[in-house]
Write a structure and sequence with these properties.
The complex is a heterodimer of chains A (about 180) and B (about 575). In chain A, helix 2 (about 20-35) packs parallel to helix 3. Chain A is about 35% helix and about 25% strand. Chain A has one domain: Rossmann fold (3-Layer(aba) Sandwich). In chain A, the strands form two sheets. A seven-stranded mixed beta sheet of chain A has the order 3-4-2-5-6-7-8, sandwiched between helices. Chain A has a two-stranded antiparallel sheet with strand order 1-9. Chain A has about 180 residues and is an alpha/beta fold. Mean pLDDT of chain A is about 80; it is low at about 1-15 and about 170-175. Chain B has three domains: about 10-210, 2-Layer Sandwich (Beta-Lactamase), CATH 3.30.450; about 280-430, Heat Shock Protein 90, CATH 3.30.565; about 455-565, Response regulator (Rossmann fold). Helix content of chain B is about 50%, strand content about 20%. In chain B, strands 6, 7, 8, 9, 10, 11 and 12 form a seven-stranded mixed beta sheet that branches. A five-stranded antiparallel beta sheet of chain B has the order 2-1-5-4-3. In chain B, strands 14-13-15-16-17 form a five-stranded parallel beta sheet, with helices on both faces. Chain B is elongated and about 165 Å long. Classes of the chains: A alpha/beta (about 180), B alpha/beta (about 575). The interface between A and B is medium-sized, with 21 and 20 residues. Chain A: Keywords: Signal. Chain A: It holds the Pfam family DUF4154. Chain A: This is YfiR family protein.
């Protein structure tokens, strides 16, 4: 019933940014940061208790300054957030969250392989879908939603809150 | 006697009316305080419940708020609305915008949520809480619940209050009833006390009446005796016929003896006459009494004595035994106005024990008179109880019998059938001591053979002193009289020589006869003292000290033998 309500709500209420890509990425940038409270990183992933939280944007940057704007003065725990833009993702890239953007230089698979087994929360854009990213943005009726693949996250030593999972589009899709 | 101001008060009631009412009020108050406390607790509970609900909501809506999933947020908010007490629920996102809400009624939701501690607004409780994940603040939630309405609360307490009020009422009513009961009990006790006092007063007045009867009777008897003595003396003055004078002399002597025995009875009744127990052979005693009984009874009354031949001896005061038998016989005589027979029976009553303890001798005196009514039987031995008219009896006769029997370690009783006669019996313990030898006849009075011995007579009464001096001189003693103890000690201190001091006991002045005797014993230990008194208590005290006492009235023979016994060496220190 809840799922039906959600579908109904989504169908009736079309957000104001619908069709505006800059607004859509502003929301995605906000979400990137908002994912962090619902995910637990191992303490070993950071450089000390106040080491920075590295948010990496790989490939072509679709956000521009909005992502810097979204994390400004924000912290993940005690870790200040910094945004790192990467043309290519190398093995052992110093990231805690990796947004996979479109890239001519690297395939998503290669990017993911570079951080495979590391505690890096991987988020794939809806225009760049890959089954192996932990979070996959999707657009449903013009709303930014996401699929959560907590099993993938778990393999990398990350714990994703069930609250976040509850909002997963896949989960809802399963219930449908 | 109770004064008017001393109204006897009953015992303090355990529970007074005011105490009962106070207790009832206390119960209600305690219940009220408990309800208040309960109310406070339940409110705190409600606040806690609301806080828990808000916490759960805040946790649940964290993700929906973060990712602007209004439908999911709405779902959680709606879940709370199923609670009918919840009036409004709202979730605000991190920018303070209303993300999801539910409103059942009442005030509109606030446009901006101020997070703070739970607050009560009228009959509503408002609880707010921030929505956080990790340390990131994602928004806030707002919950408004209805506190219980006064009417509903009143309903909830109504049953309880009813019970408490009933209990208080019950306590008050029971307490009041109890108090009244205690009060009534107190009154009853006071009344009983009053009645006891009245009875005591009645008894006292009965006693006074009895005393009046007694004094009347005794005075009557004494007047008769005095009449005999007085007229006898008058007649003696008018005649010189020795035979007639002798007869008159005997009459006077008899009257005096009867007077003495009357006072003996009075003393026995007052239990002041010390018993002088001796081993008595009842048969011998009764044989000696035969003549006396004959004289005391009328001619139409026959006396028969039936004694068991082997009757045991008893240890009693012989003269009291005689008085007792005489008293019973006189009562029997008076119970037989038309004559009859008195049977005196004596028999052994063995207890059956080998050591002979409990063996009794039963002496019963039966008449053929009118008998005693059953309701009188129990009072027969009461002092002053008499069925005879004033002047005829003192009411002391049978009480002497009873007193004598008890004092001798035995008992007395009465059996009577109305119209057929009465039997009064005595049961006296057996004595195994040997009977004393028959006393030798009193030696004739003779003058002191050893020449004139000097006796110091101490006596305050001039008449008595004069007569006693005469008697002593008659017995051949030289006398000197002192009117009190102090002049007697002066005489002795002055060096006058006496062979014996003969002193009255009760005298005016600081020193009595007993003190005088002690003083003489201390200062002149070789000087013998004989005391004399008519007052039995004094006699008992002196006898208790081992002193020689001659009880008044005494006859010249008794005086002579007492003096002789002391002076001849028996009582004289070596």
């Amino acid at each position: 019933m809840a799922a039906a309500g959600l579908a109904l709500g989504a169908a009736l209420v079309r957000p104001a940014w619908a069709g505006d890509p800059s607004l859509e990425y502003a929301i995605k940038a906000d979400y990137l940061y908002k994912f962090t409270p619902f995910v637990e990183w191992p303490t070993t992933a950071f450089d000390g208790p106040v080491g920075p939280f590295k948010l990496c944007v790989a490939g072509q940057d679709p956000f521009g300054p909005v992502v810097d704007e979204a994390v400004r003065d924000h912290k993940v725990g005690d870790h200040p957030v910094i945004v790192i833009r990467l043309k290519t993702v190398d093995r052992g890239a110093p990231c805690h969250l990796l947004f996979l953007g479109r890239s001519r230089l690297q395939s998503p698979r290669r990017m993911l392989a570079a951080v495979d087994g590391q505690p890096v929360l991987t988020v794939a854009d809806d225009r760049f879908p890959t089954k192996r990213a932990m979070i996959q943005f999707v657009l449903i009726d013009g709303h930014v939603r996401f699929e959560i693949r907590s099993a993938v996250a778990q393999v990398s030593g990350l714990a994703v809150s069930s609250k976040l999972e509850a909002l997963s589009a896949t989960t809802k899709g399963d219930g449908r | 006697m109770i004064g008017k101001g001393q109204k006897p008060r009953g015992p303090r009631p355990v529970l007074t009316v005011s105490m009962a009412v106070g207790l009832a009020i206390a119960i209600v108050l305690a219940a009220f305080v408990m309800a208040l406390y309960n109310e406070r607790l339940s409110e705190r509970d409600r606040v806690r419940q609301a806080a828990v609900q808000v916490h759960i909501l805040a946790g649940s809506v964290a993700a929906p708020l973060a990712f602007d999933d209004r439908a999911a947020a709405r779902e959680y908010v709606d879940a709370l609305s199923s609670n009918p007490d919840v009036e409004a629920v709202a979730a605000y996102d991190m920018r303070g915008r209303l993300a999801a809400s539910f409103l059942r009624g009442g005030e509109a939701l606030p446009t901006a949520n101020t997070v703070g501690p739970p607050r009560v607004e009228g009959a509503r409780l408002v609880v707010t809480y921030p929505v956080t994940e990790g340390e990131t603040v994602l928004g806030s939630v707002y919950l408004r619940t209805v506190l219980e309405s006064p009417a509903r609360r009143a309903m909830r307490y109504a049953g309880f209050a009813l019970l408490i009020i009933m209990a208080a009422l019950l306590v008050a009513v029971l307490g009041a009833a109890n108090a009244r009961e205690a009060e009534a009990f107190g009154k009853l006790r006071a009344e009983i006390r009053e009645r006891e006092k009245a009875e005591e007063a009645l008894r006292q007045s009965q006693k006074m009446e009895a005393m009046g009867q007694l004094t009347g009777g005794v005075a009557h008897d004494f007047n008769n005796l005095l009449m005999v003595a007085s007229s006898g003396l008058d007649l003696m003055d008018r005649t010189t016929d020795p035979a007639r004078r002798e007869r008159l002399r005997q009459g006077i002597r008899q009257a005096i003896d009867r007077g003495a025995s009357l006072t003996q009875q009075l003393l026995a009744f007052s239990r002041r006459s010390p018993l002088k127990p001796e081993v008595v052979d009842i048969g011998r005693r009764l044989a000696g009494m035969h003549a006396l009984l004959d004289r005391s009874l009328r001619e139409d009354v026959a006396v028969e004595v039936k004694l068991a031949p082997d009757l045991w001896r008893i240890e009693v005061d012989a003269s009291q035994l005689e008085v007792a038998v005489l008293n019973i016989a006189i009562n029997a005589r008076d119970a037989m106005p038309d004559g009859g027979a008195i049977t005196i029976e004596g028999r052994n009553e063995p207890s059956g024990r080998p050591d002979g303890v409990g063996d009794m001798v039963r002496l019963s005196i039966r008449d053929t008179g009118v008998g005693v009514a059953p309701e009188m039987l129990s009072r027969l031995f009461e002092p002053f109880f008499t069925t005879k008219e004033v002047g005829k009896g003192t009411g002391l006769g049978l009480s002497q019998v009873y007193g004598f029997a008890r004092a001798s370690g035995g008992e007395a009783g009465v059996d009577s059938v109305l119209g057929q006669g009465t039997t009064i019996w005595l049961r006296i313990p057996r004595s195994t001591k040997a009977a004393p030898a028959e006393p030798a006849p009193a030696p004739p009075v003779r003058a002191n053979p050893e020449g004139r011995q000097r006796i110091l007579l101490v006596e305050d009464d001039d008449n008595v002193a004069h007569l006693v001096e005469e008697m002593l001189q008659e017995l051949g003693y030289e006398t000197r009289r002192a009117a009190a103890a102090a002049p007697a000690l002066d005489l002795l201190g002055a060096g006058e020589i006496f062979d014996l001091v003969f002193s009255d006991m009760v005298m005016p002045g600081d020193i009595g006869g007993l003190d005088l005797a002690r003083e003489i014993q201390r200062r002149w230990p070789r000087l013998p003292v004989i005391l004399t008194t008519g007052y039995s208590a004094a006699a008992t005290a002196a006898s208790g000290e081992g002193r020689r006492v001659l009880v008044k009235p005494y006859r010249i023979e008794a005086l002579a033998s007492e003096l002789e016994a002391v002076l001849s060496g028996a009582g004289r220190p070596a």
